Amino acid sequence: MSFAAEATSTLQTLGMRGPAGVLELLVHAAVAAIAVAAAWGLWIGNPGAPTMAEVAMGLCAAASVQSLYWTRLPHDVTPGDRLPLAILAIAHATGWILYLRKSRRVRSLLPYD
After folding, report:
1. How far is CA 79 from CA 61, 82, 107, in A?
2. Which of 7, 11, 22, 57 is deepest in the core (most CB within 10 A)?
3. Would you list the domain boundaries of the chain?
4. Are 66 and 75 a contacting pair, CB within 8 Å?
5. How far apart are CA 20 and CA 46, in angstroms?
6. How far apart are CA 14 and CA 66, in angstroms?
7. How many CA atoms lie within 13 A of 17 on its CB side?
8. pLDDT digit of tens for each residue in the chain (113 aa)?
9. Are 43 and 68 in contact (CB under 8 A)?
10. Residue 98 Cα distances to 54, 82, 111, angstroms
11. Terminus-to-terminus CA distance in the chain, angstroms?
Protein backbone atom coordinates (compact mmCIF):
# COMPACT_ATOMS: atom_id res chain seq x y z
CA MET A 1 0.00 0.00 0.00
CA SER A 2 2.83 2.40 0.77
CA PHE A 3 4.33 1.80 -2.66
CA ALA A 4 0.98 2.57 -4.31
CA ALA A 5 0.75 5.84 -2.41
CA GLU A 6 4.36 6.67 -3.27
CA ALA A 7 3.83 5.91 -6.95
CA THR A 8 0.65 7.95 -7.29
CA SER A 9 2.21 10.96 -5.58
CA THR A 10 5.38 10.75 -7.70
CA LEU A 11 4.38 9.77 -11.25
CA GLN A 12 3.36 13.27 -12.34
CA THR A 13 6.70 14.77 -11.27
CA LEU A 14 8.98 11.89 -12.20
CA GLY A 15 10.47 13.80 -15.15
CA MET A 16 11.96 16.48 -12.92
CA ARG A 17 13.27 13.93 -10.41
CA GLY A 18 15.57 12.43 -13.04
CA PRO A 19 17.01 8.94 -13.45
CA ALA A 20 17.72 8.61 -9.73
CA GLY A 21 14.03 9.09 -8.95
CA VAL A 22 13.02 6.55 -11.58
CA LEU A 23 15.57 4.04 -10.25
CA GLU A 24 14.41 4.56 -6.68
CA LEU A 25 10.78 4.05 -7.65
CA LEU A 26 11.67 0.88 -9.57
CA VAL A 27 13.61 -0.52 -6.61
CA HIS A 28 10.68 0.22 -4.31
CA ALA A 29 8.38 -1.53 -6.81
CA ALA A 30 10.64 -4.59 -6.79
CA VAL A 31 10.67 -4.67 -2.98
CA ALA A 32 6.87 -4.41 -2.91
CA ALA A 33 6.57 -7.23 -5.46
CA ILE A 34 8.86 -9.49 -3.42
CA ALA A 35 6.87 -8.72 -0.26
CA VAL A 36 3.56 -9.54 -1.98
CA ALA A 37 5.00 -12.79 -3.37
CA ALA A 38 6.29 -13.78 0.07
CA ALA A 39 2.92 -13.02 1.68
CA TRP A 40 1.11 -15.03 -0.97
CA GLY A 41 3.53 -17.91 -0.46
CA LEU A 42 2.85 -17.90 3.27
CA TRP A 43 -0.88 -17.74 2.62
CA ILE A 44 -0.90 -20.81 0.36
CA GLY A 45 1.64 -22.73 2.47
CA ASN A 46 4.61 -22.77 0.12
CA PRO A 47 7.65 -24.37 1.88
CA GLY A 48 10.02 -21.67 0.55
CA ALA A 49 7.84 -18.81 1.72
CA PRO A 50 9.33 -18.32 5.21
CA THR A 51 12.78 -17.71 3.75
CA MET A 52 11.38 -15.40 1.10
CA ALA A 53 9.42 -13.54 3.79
CA GLU A 54 12.61 -13.02 5.81
CA VAL A 55 14.33 -11.60 2.73
CA ALA A 56 11.31 -9.40 2.02
CA MET A 57 11.31 -8.02 5.57
CA GLY A 58 15.01 -7.19 5.32
CA LEU A 59 14.49 -5.48 1.97
CA CYS A 60 11.50 -3.51 3.30
CA ALA A 61 13.57 -2.28 6.25
CA ALA A 62 16.44 -1.34 3.96
CA ALA A 63 14.11 0.54 1.61
CA SER A 64 12.52 2.36 4.55
CA VAL A 65 15.88 3.47 5.93
CA GLN A 66 17.06 4.46 2.46
CA SER A 67 13.99 6.59 1.89
CA LEU A 68 14.57 8.37 5.19
CA TYR A 69 18.18 9.38 4.49
CA TRP A 70 18.54 9.53 0.69
CA THR A 71 15.60 10.01 -1.60
CA ARG A 72 14.59 11.77 -4.79
CA LEU A 73 10.94 11.08 -4.07
CA PRO A 74 8.65 13.27 -1.94
CA HIS A 75 8.75 12.46 1.78
CA ASP A 76 7.70 14.68 4.67
CA VAL A 77 10.01 13.68 7.50
CA THR A 78 11.50 16.18 9.87
CA PRO A 79 15.26 15.73 10.32
CA GLY A 80 14.95 14.89 14.03
CA ASP A 81 12.57 12.02 13.29
CA ARG A 82 14.84 10.16 10.89
CA LEU A 83 16.86 8.15 13.41
CA PRO A 84 13.88 7.04 15.54
CA LEU A 85 11.95 6.04 12.40
CA ALA A 86 14.95 4.11 11.05
CA ILE A 87 15.31 2.28 14.36
CA LEU A 88 11.58 1.54 14.36
CA ALA A 89 11.71 0.15 10.80
CA ILE A 90 14.64 -2.11 11.67
CA ALA A 91 13.01 -3.25 14.93
CA HIS A 92 9.73 -3.98 13.12
CA ALA A 93 11.50 -6.12 10.51
CA THR A 94 13.55 -7.88 13.20
CA GLY A 95 10.41 -8.71 15.16
CA TRP A 96 8.74 -10.27 12.12
CA ILE A 97 11.89 -12.22 11.21
CA LEU A 98 12.03 -13.61 14.76
CA TYR A 99 8.37 -14.56 14.47
CA LEU A 100 9.01 -16.31 11.16
CA ARG A 101 11.86 -18.30 12.73
CA LYS A 102 10.09 -19.23 15.98
CA SER A 103 6.44 -19.73 14.97
CA ARG A 104 5.16 -23.31 14.97
CA ARG A 105 2.72 -22.48 12.22
CA VAL A 106 5.47 -21.16 9.97
CA ARG A 107 7.82 -24.03 10.82
CA SER A 108 5.10 -26.49 9.84
CA LEU A 109 5.51 -25.24 6.26
CA LEU A 110 9.15 -26.31 6.17
CA PRO A 111 9.61 -29.79 4.70
CA TYR A 112 12.65 -30.73 6.83
CA ASP A 113 11.62 -29.31 10.22
Report:
1. 19, 6, 40
2. 57
3. 18-107
4. no
5. 35
6. 18
7. 17
8. 777 767 777 777 777 777 888 888 889 999 999 999 999 999 998 989 999 999 999 999 999 998 888 877 767 788 789 899 999 999 999 999 999 999 888 888 777 65
9. no
10. 9, 24, 19
11. 33
- 53-59 CB contacts, 8 Å cutoff, 24+ apart: 53/96, 53/100, 54/97, 54/100, 54/101, 56/31, 57/93, 57/96, 57/97, 57/100, 58/93, 58/97, 59/31, 59/34, 59/35
Contact 23, 71 (CB under 8 A): no
Distance in angstroms (rounded) separating the CA atoms of residues 96 and 73: 27
Question: What is the model's pLDDT at position 65?
Answer: 92
What pLDDT sits at residue 112? 62
Torsion of CA 100, 106, 112, 113, to 10 degrees: 80
For residue 71, which of 15, 8, 28, 36 has the smallest C-alpha distance?
A: 28
- Return left, alpha or beta for 18; rule: phi > 0 is left, psi -120 to 50 is alpha, else beta: left
